[in-house]
Model the fold of this input.
Amino acid sequence: MKTTGEKHVVVGADFAGFRLKEGVKRHLEERGWTVTDLTPTDDDLPMYHRVGFLVGSRISEREFEKGVIFCGSGMGIHIAASKCPHVHAAVCESVPTALRAATANNANVLAIGAFFTAPRLASAMADAFLEHTLGDGYESWEGFHEYHKIGYIECENFDYETFKANGFRVVDPQEADLGPEPFGLAY
Done:
């Protein structure tokens, strides 16, 4: 697997996200990342959902640890990528949400909307997302890592039919004590 620790990432974009993807890709390469671009030219770009499937499949197949995808809003491409097994995609529009997607939700795909996000902001979001993992940065909040790890595991192992058969309740839910919110935490 090509990991973020080794500075590898997979990216892709539809027609609406292509120019933003190019800017973020350039930024990442300048920072030493090896960027595998599944949509390297703007000739005959796949529709947003097909790009989501394409990048998501590389995560599902464990070729890459993380990916960054771009479309107009980030929404459609995120939905499509999330259809691939083991993909936990997050649509973000700020650095704090990209950071939290990595540190709290263990997301492995970041979706960015080119209609709403400028290149410098998108580059900073990619940095925050790619340079952090589950639990980073929130150690001062007692139980934060354990609480969110349970959420990730239950999402990763979710089976709708089992959930339905159990009266729409998680089978054997795990619990974690989340301590009081640290003073001054703004988000």
Observations:
- The mean pLDDT is 94.
